[in-house]
Amino acid sequence: MSVENSPQRETHAFQAEINQLLSLVINSLYSHKEIFLRELVSNASDALDKLRFRSITEPELLADEPALELRLIPDAEKGTLTIEDTGIGMTHDELVKNLGTIAHSGSREFLETLAQRGQKDMQLIGQFGVGFYSAYLVADHVEVVSRAPGKDQPAWKWASDAKGSFTVEPAERATRGTAITLHLKADQKEFLEEYRLRTLITQYSDYVGHPIKLQVKKTTGTGDDAKTETALEVVNKASALWQRSKSEITDEQYQEFYKHLTHDWEAPLAWTHFKADGNQQFTGLLFVPKHPPFDLNAQQQRGVRLFVKRVFIMDRCEELVPQWLRFVRGVIDSDDLPLNVSRELLQDSQVVRAIRKHVVKKSVDLLEKLAKDKPDDYREFWKAFGTVVKEGLATEAEHKDKLGGLLRYESSREEGITSLADYVSRMKEGQEAIYYIYGESRQAVADSPHLETLKQRGFEVLYMTDPVDEWAAQGLREFQGKQLVSALQADLKLQSTDEQKKEQEQHAEGLKTLTTKMKDVLKDSVREVRVSDRLTDSPVCLVVPEGGSPAYLERLLQQRGKGMGMPRVKRIMEINPGHPVIAHLKAVHERQPDAAQVTEWIELLHDQALLTEGSTISDPNRFARRMTGLLTQVAAQAAGHGATATAATQAPAPEATAAQPSSTTQPTS
User: Fold this and answer.
1) Which residue from 204, 328, 324, 208 is spatially nearest to 269, judged by alpha carbons?
2) Is it the case that residue 3 has pLDDT exceeding 50?
3) Which element (helix H / strand E) includes 359?
């Protein structure tokens, strides 16, 4: 016999995370416990939406109860509050699955959030798909009687006092739908009062698109003829907010609708309400949240609901919103799509493509307005969602001009973030490009040797430290006619005078013997060794040739398994002709071209350059031994031992000389 036909009461243990969640909710000191009503009404509204959508192709589902509505029934004598809907209902197995034994996708994440932020964030419970359990904020026992649509479907009763288990047994219910009965705690009886319930419905659920009926007591007649009866009264407007005129809606109403839609407890940063009346007719209401949801980085995550002629069709409709706008929340209501629209139809619909284009435009316009009118709020937005926005540059090039204006980066100029437009406005005379450096953190890139001549010339450098930044920069390429140039690239596109070019050529010629030697020693690691025009304080650096990737990007790809088997593009090694290390190394090499120390020092310089670019070195132990040897020489010289050594084999190591005060350092032109 199947479980559904079993006549006896069954007892089930709660899944571990649900049990832990219930313990937190029951023992919560959270003061705004009225959110339970918002959550349960929202769940009931979803059940009604699902039934209405299915009834488009299965009209027989409405046969036993045509009305789609919610009912609140307080019973002061029994101390119970019942939230009832005539929606999709649940079977036996759905009750067991949805209310206890299978962990909801967000239960663990919600527990982790509470642990991090404390019980002040109990309002977040609905965002994690576990809003039903908020009932235990006010109740010590909950009963759910539900019946799925269809004349042969039986009703089932779920009950629990949240002490580790729940029961499921057959029940009686004449029509489809669900009734949740809360046995209120002794100190929560305020939620039986008519005025309190009316106020909460108006505050949290006025925009639910189905009537919410409250059972009230009415007295007719006077004296001995007085008679008290109960009646159901509609207490919400039950109209789609987005279909009203903007002039009729207050900011507070927009904010409360957003909270109802998203289960967020904070007001949104911004919103836009629009209506398209061209070839396609649709209405939209889009919101930008203050904080990212826990599943922001889920690939399937979208936040826009699709309605057709005010009928709910689909939640998280990914066809309407590109992935790089997945943080946007809201609704789109189309007059042109069919009610029985499918995923396949959405993917191949000209109407949907037009709506998507409009959604992107309105979203970007909203962010531009936020950045212009409320820069502090935009900084808050960028901290939360900037990484996601930058994905658009890597995936949809047609929006790059607009997205370029939204970008914000830290820079070498000052603390905080700056826009590209502000960067361009501050560019020095003779600066032809927007310079940036890509790395793991501000600390990792701010003192990079690759920036030395840029800083010397007074050129501002953007610090790009998000993993997506390199792809974003490649997607953008230029902004306001200024090319984006990585400080790690081989060609910095620096302007030079004829005198500077001549001096550079002289340096190259004078160091030709050394660069040839270095190329020979490092032939398996670098493709070229050349004199640098970017170094002023450091002896060497590695730069990325055309077609190569920065070290940080290579490391990320390796960590994610996407760089396996990819050959590393050989770097170009640049040397600073004015640095004492290079001068002494040249002198030693000219005296003894085959000295083993020269080879060791060249390899050590290469290891140093690898570390400063963020790469790993092939033999850390050998590197450590060589550094120990050099430190020993420096320590001996500092102590006065061996300071008079003049033989080539005892000459000060290049790094040892560099470790002394750098007053002899000659900056390059």
Assistant:
1) 328
2) no
3) helix 350-373
Flag whether pLDDT at 5 surpasses 50: no
In whole angstroms, give the CA distance from residue 154 to residue 172: 8
**Which residues are CB-contacts of 546 (< 8 A; sequence separation ≥ 6)?**
489, 490, 491
Residue tagged 């940063």 (tokens): 269
Q: Which two tokens stand for residue 616?
A: 């790993």
pLDDT in tens, 65-75: 889 999 999 99
Question: Does the structure show a pLDDT above 60 at 655?
Answer: no
Residues 385, 388, 389, 390, Cα dihedral to 10°: 120
Residue 630 to residues 121, 143, 625, 651, Cα–Cα distance (Å): 56, 77, 9, 11
CB-CB contact of 108 with 167 (8 Å): no
Structure tokens at 40: 């349960």
Give the confidence band of 659 by pLDDT, cuts at 50, 70, 90. very low
Q: Where are the beta strands (DSSP E) in 76-224?
A: 80-85, 139-147, 155-160, 165-171, 177-184, 212-220
- What pLDDT does 562 receive? 63
- Cβ neighbour number for residue 547 with a 10 Å cutoff: 6
Q: What is the pTM of this model?
A: 0.72
Compute the distance between CA of residue 551 and CA of residue 553 in angstroms, rounded to an integer: 5
User: Mind giving me the DSSP string for 538-550?
Assistant: -SEEEEBPTT---
Please provide the distance, in angstroms rounded to a whole number, between the alpha carbons at the two ends of the chain.
Answer: 89
Considering only CA atoms, which of 334, 305, 257, 242 is closest in space to residue 46? 305
